[in-house]
Amino acid sequence: MTGNKQHQTDIDHMRTALTLARRGIGMTAPNPSVGCVVVDSDGHVAGRGWTAVGGRPHGETVALQRAGDKARGGTAYVTFEPCSHQGKTPPCAQVLIDSRVARVVIACTDPDSRVSGKGAKMLKAAGIKITEGVLKDEALALNAGFITRVGKGRPSFTLKAATSLDGRIATRSGDSQWITGEESRLTAHMLRARHDAIMVGIGTALSDNPSLTCRLGGMDAYSPVRIVADSSLRLPLSSTLVETAGKVPTWIVCSTDADENTANALIKKNVHIVRVEASSAGRPRPEAIAQAIGERGLTRVLIEGGGKLAGEFLHADLVDHLAWYHAPMLIGGDGIPSAAAFGVEKLGKAPAYVRSGLELVGRDLYETYQRDDGKKT
Description:
The chain is an alpha/beta fold. The protein has helices at 3-22, 59-67, 92-99, 118-125, 136-142, 144-152, 182-193, 202-208, 240-243, 260-268, 286-295, 307-315; strands spanning 35-39, 45-50, 75-78, 103-106, 129-132, 156-163, 168-170, 197-201, 225-229, 250-255, 271-276, 300-305, 321-326, 336-337, 353-361, 364-371. A hairpin with a 2-residue loop joins strand 15 (353-361) and strand 16 (364-371). The N and C termini lie far apart (49 Å). The model has no long low-confidence stretch (mean pLDDT 92).
């Protein structure tokens, strides 16, 4: 096979592996979601796999099990560098070596210090040919949450908003159901399923009494962890979130001095209490929230409301992505804004983003953005 043809073949198989990896997004924390395609020595696909729910087994293991003896002398396409350390499962690099594959194509290096470069080195030492960097940018983007947690000690945060054209999430009286159409609400449930957790502020939890689950047909099991930022533990024991905490993991992030008796009552209802440092205003500091939930293994968190929580995370420069639904209506300046004031005085200091997607969903416009790391301040 000529060099150009081999390169195109590598791209095609890696693109398939990335598609497989996307199936696990939002369900593999604290591990990355990895896709793997095993091609036999004749060039035929022999096995496919992706990281299972909860992060095990890994994608390489699944694909190699499906390929069986056909992996011998073949090529494995992996979206993330195979792990080289012994965890709850054997190192994927060793599993690849034991399968007798002749070549491994890797999209990107694992930034985890336990792995970074070691997996590829282990494969090379066993005589396996290595090709690295095939569709690297796509692979890094796919596991941005994992990479952020490893590099910064926190998950990546996506701020989701459903607003009028003038950026309002409710009228001045608080009426908000529904600004966007049914089609948008359905896609928002899929967005929930693709994150490890959904987070709201106590104001939203009290006013809406939400369930924060994924309510698409057949996807109840994909509901992520539910997090409420509630400094003084005001969430009632009778709330939907507390009453269903035994079925869907529910965390409350409160200040370190929140009432112990109230906390114990919530714990008895299966709520997980996370105590963090509070700001001068008495609310949990966004930086402290980010670190605490990152330490607990979360890699992708969807911030759903309300305006105060959004403003605080924007002010702390912790919002990595935006998922924005614009409804074709105007509410006016006396409506409730999507983000509370967070002190921007100069345009050069405003959080900046690059649009990554644009589509029409029913009657609404849905836009996605990612942080503009090239912004000059």
